[in-house]
Description:
Blueprint: E1 2-14, E2 18-20, E3 23-25, E4 29-31, H1 39-51, H2 57-60, H3 73-86, E5 89-99, H4 109-120, E6 127-132, H5 138-141, E7 145-156
Parallel strand pairs: 5-6
Antiparallel strand pairs: 1-4, 1-7, 2-3, 5-7
Helix pairs in contact: 1-3
Amino acid sequence: xxxxxxxxxxxxxxxxxxxxxxxxxxxxxxxxxxxxxxxxxxxxxxxxxxxxxxxxxxxxxxxxxxxxxxxxxxxxxxxxxxxxxxxxxxxxxxxxxxxxxxxxxxxxxxxxxxxxxxxxxxxxxxxxxxxxxxxxxxxxxxxxxxxxxxxxxxxxxx
Length: 158
Ligand code: MG
């Protein structure tokens, strides 16, 4: 059994949709970045790579590569799952937390978890997505960005 940890942070900018876990959340601003900047999916992908010590997301999907411009991060997540599978890894569960001052995410957490579970081929009860307010503190509290953290466990054959 392996454990992987992932973290990601993106700036909140105007003129972009806010996509978290593949779900578009109603918001005046969205996250800036090369892909759809889905900070939650990126954290889960980083955790998956970490479980098998496969480096970080930037190594596998460089932001200089036009193939990944504007692409859904669920596609990146599927690719990462394939990398893990090719090394005999089977994802067991995901536990993730989104750190956002605004918007409030409680109503969308179930949809995010369902979308991630579907993408990862997991039963819904094996994917946990939680939200945490930074209580007005620091760059997250000032609504300059949204961060996400994720832990995964992976069973490796052999
Ligand atoms: Mg990212």
